[in-house]
Amino acid sequence: MKNIRKIAVVQLICILLTTPLFAQSNADSCHPCDEIHRMDSTHIVIWHSGVQASHLHAEDIKGVSFAPVSNLLSAIPQLNLISTGNSIQKPMFQGLSGLRLPLIQNELRMVGQTWGNDHGPELARAGVESVNVLKAQDALWVTGESWGNAVQVEYQPTYHSHAGNVQSGLGYSSNGNALLANFKLNQGTHHAGMGWYLQGQGFVSQDYSVPLSNEAQTGSIKTSPGTKNGILRNTATQEFSIMGGLTQRLNEHWAMQSDFSWFFNENGIYAGSHIGNTTDLVNSINRKDPNVLIPCGSYQINKPKQAAEHISASAVIQRHDGLKTQISFQQNTRQEFDPHRNPKNSFPQLNVRLNAVQVRQEIPIHLSLISQAQVGSEWQEQSYGGYFLVPEFTSQQYFGVLKGHNERPNLLQNWGLRLDFLHRSTLLKDESMNEQTFKGISAAYSARKIQNRNTVQLFINHSWRAPAVNELFSAGVHHGNASYEEGNAGLTPEWGDKLEFQWKKSFKKSNFELSTFGLWSPNYIHLNPQSSPILTFRGAFPHYKYEQLPTILSGASAYQEFFFSRGKFTLGGEYTYGRILQPERYPTLLPCSELSVGWVGQFKFGEYYIKYVRVFQQRYFTASTDLMPPPEGFQLLDAGITLKKGSKYELTLNGNNLLNTRYRNYLDRFRYFTPAMGRNIGLKLNINIHYHEKTHP
Questions:
Q1: Beta strand ranges found along 214-369 (DSSP E)
Q2: Residue 393 predicted with pLDDT over 60
Q3: For 307, phi and psi rounded to 5 degrees?
Q4: If we measure between CA atoms, which residue out of 466, 458, 535, 456 comes closest to residue 495?
Q5: Is position 697 within any domain?
Q6: What is the distance between the alpha carbons of residues 470 and 489, in angstroms, rounded to a whole number?
């Protein structure tokens, strides 16, 4: 009830902000607006669904109204999700999991993602302005920890002079009786490209349901009345966030941009994932259906559970010629609560806090080969409370980056070179201090050639990455994904080379895109499941170890778009292959091959979509390297319709997993215990008001 009141408060704010008192005039009296450009003029390219564009907008992706933003990201070719149940989802690109896909929020790298494979990004569900996939030298510019790719999520809107936008949304989702409320405001000033924005959202969900097998026994499994679904005990979610920013001119040469954000998320951890002994754990894994179900869902979140809070603030000062200074602060807190120890609800078995401060300076250089330079430093401090999983540490990192380009007729070449130096002091479990120093060089090259209707791009990356603290020294139960993780103190810096090729062909009424990549590393760091579970004082759990092994990865994706007068038809497919060279075996958590077919149609009062996805069983699997073999392949059907009244009102009805398919996802670390979410129907109302201030000569 308390959570529902929070949603009601958020929606009341939305209603107040969308009243005529706030909006001085509406879109009917709107005059043409000047397009505003972001302060950073770096050209960023994303390839998706056969279209080359500078941005992927949230409205381009259908049916993700109630899902985390990571679901939006998963619509990008070769980008998949590692998940822990329904509420925790972390993106990986081209099979590069864990720490190798940095997330950038409003030009700020989110350091909380360094905690491992499974932590969902602290990104709000209310929607984003755009998503950029950075490649080669652009990825190298923001961080040296990527393998030539990074994802940039933008919340800063495009400002119009003397104009503003007010958006309010309210929605309901059937699976889990989820409620969502959000608002967005932005206002442009009289200066081109200047203004402010503010947005907030609240989301609560009950325990969600999954389809059961035909063999489910009424006596041992409690099902929802009149359905073939079962409700998973303790899988409720609540999430709240607020963020804002300001872009303003200081004088005719200088401008400043500042952003802040606060994000809070609390998730119940499925009660059936915490089991007292190895025999019961193995029996539970071999069951067709979950072993802890309830007849009715609840918004109450009990132990085991986890909570995450992310606070960030940043300021950028930029001169008109590109000279830029940025300073930022982040604080990430993550808590996990064990159901078997300390009955006090307020006591977390894990309480990790990471503080980070980053300063960087960008310098324009007008030379024949070098166009930009960047120097910077980052300080991090991590502390923990409760039981040990990861150690305390402090680190100082210094880096320098050079970027250049060479443009010829129909041919553009770019390159980047980065040097990183990292010193880290780690307080180990036995109270001894470990001092480590890492240094390495990363490099990138890209070329793009456009001829007639063909666009060809080539990306070459030499990557270097220091092992993270959790990869080196983690040792304990990780309640967030119901597993025991064991670090490897002997890990050395990971390095290797990657080659990507992309070809786009434009026809009169269609587009085709082919993307391929290949990667080789002599010391790739894996988080490998072990063939036997481990028994601890807190129960029995799947056992994972960090190992460093010579590895190759490769893959391809192909997409075709066909344009018609009333809509667009898409056809696509993805394939990923991997191999550990010594000892010879397949790596775990490789994305499965898949095919997809979609249609987006338009009619007088809106649009509709339908999408079919076929995910195949993972065949690249070595026996006895996991607690269970990869699950069978599955197929999903999604559809939705949006009704619009002008540009002000939108009513969206969408359905996910409409066939109520019972399946387990190979990339879901909870597949040991339960199938994935069943049918989910969502309804959302959006109110959009665009207005102009009255100006005086």
A1: 229-232, 237-249, 254-268, 293-294, 305-319, 324-337, 350-364
A2: yes
A3: -135, 140
A4: 466
A5: no
A6: 10
Cis peptide before 304 (omega within 30 of 0): yes
pLDDT at 118: 55
Q: For residue 361, what is the domain's CATH number?
A: 2.40.170.20
Cβ–Cβ under 8 Å, residues 478 and 460: no
- Number of domains, the chain: 1
Q: How far apart are CA 181 and CA 169, in angstroms?
A: 6
* Residues with Cβ within 8 Å of residue 568, at least 6 apart in sequence: 561, 562, 599, 600
Instruction: Give the span between the Cα atoms of 667 and 133, in whole angstroms.
Output: 22
Separation CA 483–CA 488 (nearest Å): 16
570, 563, 576, 567: which is closest to 48 by C-alpha? Answer: 570
Sheet holding 103-105, edge to edge: 108-109, 103-105, 149-154, 130-135
Residue 64 burial (CB count, 10 A): 22
Mean pLDDT, residues 243-251: 92
Strand partners, 206: none
Selection from 99-103, 138-142, 530-534 with the highest mean pLDDT = 138-142
Surface-to-core class of residue 479, CB atoms within 10 Å of its CB (0-12 exposed, 13-18 middle, 19+ buried) = buried
Q: Residue ranges of the alpha helices (H) in 88-226? A: 136-142
Structure tokens at 397: 């990192």
Spatial separation of the C-alpha atoms in residues 93 and 102, rounded to whole Å: 10
Cα–Cα distance between 195 and 190 in angstroms, integer? 9
**Beta strand extents in 18-129 (DSSP E only):** 46-48, 51-53, 79-84, 88-93, 103-105, 108-109
For residue 639, tell me if it sits in a domain: yes
Whether cis (ω within 30° of 0) applies to the bond prior to 339 is: no
Cβ(282)–Cβ(533) under 8 Å? yes
Percent of the chain surpassing pLDDT 90: 51
Dist. CA 233–CA 238, nearest whole Å:
15
Residue 327, domain member (yes or no): yes
Report the alpha-carbon distance of residue 42 to residue 405 in Å, rounded: 12
- Could you tell me if residue 107 is left (phi over 0), alpha (psi between -120 and 50 degrees) or otherwise beta? left
Per residue in 43-96, pLDDT (tens digit) is 223 332 223 333 344 444 444 455 666 666 777 888 888 888 777 778 888 988
Which of 151, 52, 170 lies closest to 448 in space, CA to CA?
A: 52
What is the layout of strands, in order, in the sheet containing 209-211?
A: 209-211, 229-232, 293-294
β 454-465/392-408 pair status: unpaired
Q: Is 139 helix (H, G, I), strand (E, B) or coil?
A: helix
669, 119 Cβ separation under 8 angstroms: no
Going from the C-alpha of 543 to that of each of 285, 478, 536, 590, the distances in angstroms are 14, 10, 11, 18
Task: Provide the 8-state DSSP code for 594.
Answer: E
pTM of the model: 0.86
Output the six-digit token pair for 29: 């009296």
Closest to 519 in 3D by CA, of 551, 491, 494: 551
> Residue 224 has which token pair?
């929802």
Residue 113 backbone zone (phi > 0: left; psi -120 to 50: alpha; other: beta): alpha
420 forms bridges with which residues in the sheet? 399, 440
Classified as helix, coil or strand, 480 is helix
The tokens 């132990």 sit on which residue? Answer: 303
Q: Report DSSP letters for 5-16, one per residue.
A: HHHHHHHHHHHH
Residue 195 lies in a domain: yes
Joined together, the tokens standing for residue 618 give: 């993972």
| Phi-psi sector, 343: left (phi>0), alpha (psi -120 to 50), beta | alpha
Q: How far apart are alpha carbons 531 and 30 in whole angstroms? A: 64
DSSP label at residue 301: -
